[in-house]
TrEMBL record:
Residues 245-266 are annotated as: Disordered. InterPro entries: SAM-dependent_MTases_sf, SAM_dep_MeTrfase_SAV2177_type. It comes from the Bacteria. This is Methyltransferase.
Length: 266
């Protein structure tokens, strides 16, 4: 494995902030400081983060149940049990999974991500999500892009503005996927919260040096242009196949504040 890039601990990073929300230890004072400011304003944020993670695991199990055996997870975050490959390989031991993130802390933990079943295969790409060609080229060492792949971009795109190329990177990634592949997304939205509260959260992220682009349902739906959205459609995270389990402690009465969806490439 290549040498770990130097970690910038001077400002928050989304992966480490998410780790803090989930009660992890792989974060630094700037991550904790922003996390504490945000949760003081909105104490439900850690529960919302767990609800998003629960959706990721449900979606992975659902995809494995549809016969998908290859997964590309971009914006992986710091490992938290169970990981995506564990959910996939529990149902399909031969599943092949590639993770991708740009935070060196995630790279430092990559070995924890790369322990799977003997029948399957795992890989890790250290790259920014916008480096689509590099991600796909390196992932091809593990994945066969001539066959269906489930592409997951969960809790990632709201950290990229339109100007940063959020829509473009989805188009570039899905263009390389075979027919029968799936795109899976979760994304924060202002639609379920008072305008003033959404504006305040947006400003707090920005003040911490983190891009935050919460999108409406209409803007979220644009990511799925040209794809066939599967049931139950574009819904709140807690409404997407709840029968698949993953209960979240403290979820009662809490809204995830995120739209989620999955779509098949025709």
């Amino acid at each position: 494995m290549t040498q770990t890039p130097q970690i910038d601990t001077s400002k928050p990073h989304p992966a480490r902030l998410y780790d803090w929300y989930l009660g992890g230890k792989d974060n630094y004072p700037p991550d904790e400081e922003l996390g504490r400011r945000l949760t003081e304003f909105a104490p439900v944020i850690p529960v919302m983060a767990r609800m998003n993670r629960a959706f990721t695991l449900r979606a992975t199990r659902w995809l494995a149940g549809q016969g998908v055996r290859q997964f590309l997870d971009i914006g992986t975050g710091i490992p938290t049990e169970p990981n995506l490959h564990q959910a996939a390989q529990r149902l399909a031991p031969e599943a092949r999974v590639v993770y991708c993130d740009n935070d060196p802390v995630v790279l430092a933990h990559a070995q924890a991500l790369l322990h799977g079943t003997p029948q399957g295969a795992l890989g890790y790409v250290q790259a920014d999500a916008r480096e689509t060609s590099r991600i796909l080229d390196e992932a091809a060492a593990v994945l066969d892009f001539g066959r269906p792949v489930a592409l997951s971009l969960n809790a990632l795109l709201h950290f990229l503005s339109d100007e940063d190329g959020a829509y473009r990177l989805v188009e570039e990634l899905t263009a390389r996927l075979a027919t029968g592949s799936y795109l899976v997304l979760s994304h924060l939205t202002p639609d379920f919260h008072p305008e003033e509260a959404s504006r305040k959260v947006h400003e707090m992220y920005r003040a911490g040096g983190v891009t935050m682009e919460m999108r409406t349902r209409e803007r979220f739906a644009r990511f799925f242009d040209g794809l066939d959205i599967v049931a139950p459609g574009l819904v709140a995270a807690e409404e997407w196949h709840p029968e698949l389990g993953e209960p979240v402690e403290g979820q009662g009465g809490v809204h995830s504040g995120a739209y989620v969806g999955a779509a098949r490439k025709p």
